[in-house]
Amino acid sequence: MRFGFFNFDFFNFDFSVAISCLNYLPMFYHVKELQFNARVSKPDPRFARLLLEQFGGGNGELKAAMQYFVQAFSCKNPYPDKYDLLMDIATEEFSHLEIVGATIQMLLTGVNGELKNAANSEDIMQMLEGKKAKEEFIHEAMINPQFGVLSGGGPTLTDSNGNPWTAAYVNANGDLTVDLRSNIAAESRAKIVYEYLIKFTDDPYVKETLRFLMTREVAHYQQFEAALATIQPNFPPGVLQSDPRYSNLYFNMSTGTDARGPWNDGTSTQLGETWQFIEDPLEAVKASEGLINREPEGTDRNEKSVQKINKSLSEERSTEVLTATPQEDIQWSTYSQNGNTKRKTK
Ligand code: MN
Ligand code: MN
Q1: pLDDT band at 128 (very low <50, low <70, confident <90, very high)
Q2: Residue 135 included in any domain
Q3: Residue 3 in this model has a pLDDT that exceeds 70
């Protein structure tokens, strides 16, 4: 058989190649293997509770997954490269959520089975040897009712204190220079929570998994940082430039010894203006009638140059989005538009 420019030999064809091509499915699907081989040495309900922080907590994996997932939608047409990045990392965060959930489940091994033995209330106590162990178990159930009384020994979508996960954790503001910075901050927080968690377990298998998850956040941090750098200019976040009368002022809002550093001395990090240290803010405010009459100092920027950038950058960013987005017969996927359904025309 001959297809196009290559010979197709059905009987000697390597089907594993065809199957690996099919692995690229344009939709979500579940692969049964975890991204990382999560293991635990033995059950540990106490650490399971702490680990909930990364399952349903404010800096956890579900927050990360949902944040990047939600941010991605507005990028689909104008910034397909960022759409791809955000969707890939969002999907990896779901893989992390699965690893964390699986680890919590393994750390709770035995709890659900014992609770299911409902007819024998003595049984859960019998698996614990000695009075002290029983007292500890009861204490654990008292301070941590999720596993014992609510979930029956599985992960719950809460943080380690039982606060339910909320969409309020998700930051998506429809501007990549803002969203990518939110993501760099989110990765920093996820990283440090893993770093703290590692100190609370002696299990080498759990440490190994946490180290993997922590490391991936370090990778994501740099990926978001690199993506931000491809957008120029990316400071200040958004489109409108800052008012040159106020962009380089440092208000000395305290008495006593004043700390000086590159945040109020020398040149500002992004705009390259000279910091103006306002020794006496009250006097400066009064003298300028509430800062209205202040003139720009220590900067090459002025109102005219600012308005010029505002106008050109507005046009550029607006055109970027509008030209990339069809106004009618809008379709998310890339199928041909020759489907059976005919659009009503006016
Ligand atoms: Mn993660
Ligand atoms: Mn991450």
Answers
A1: low
A2: no
A3: no
Number of domains in the chain: 2
Neighbours of ion ligand 2 (CB under 5 A): 217, 220
Whether residue 282 sits in one domain with residue 173? no
For β-strands 2-3 and 6-7, DSSP reports them as: antiparallel
Per-residue model confidence (pLDDT) at position 124: 56
Q: How far is the CA of 21 from the centre of ligand 2 (A)?
A: 27
Tokens (6 digits) for 107: 């750390």
| Alpha-carbon separation of residue 125 from 47, 108, 120, 133 (angstroms) | 21, 16, 10, 9
Question: Domain range holding 296?
Answer: 249-315
Within a domain: residue 32?
A: no
The Å distance, Cα 215 to ligand 2 centre, comes to 9
Q: What 8-state DSSP symbol labels residue 146?
A: I
pLDDT digits (tens, 9 = 90+) for 199-241: 999 999 999 999 999 999 999 999 999 999 999 999 999 999 9
* pTM for the structure as a whole: 0.85
- Of 16-25, 39-48, 112-121, 189-198, give the lowest mean pLDDT range: 16-25
How far, in Å, is the centroid of ligand 2 from the Cα of 55?
Answer: 13
Alpha-carbon span 299 to 249, nearest angstrom = 11
Tell me: do 89 and 181 sit in the same domain.
yes
Shared-domain flag, residues 224 and 255: no
Say if residue 64's pLDDT is above 90.
yes
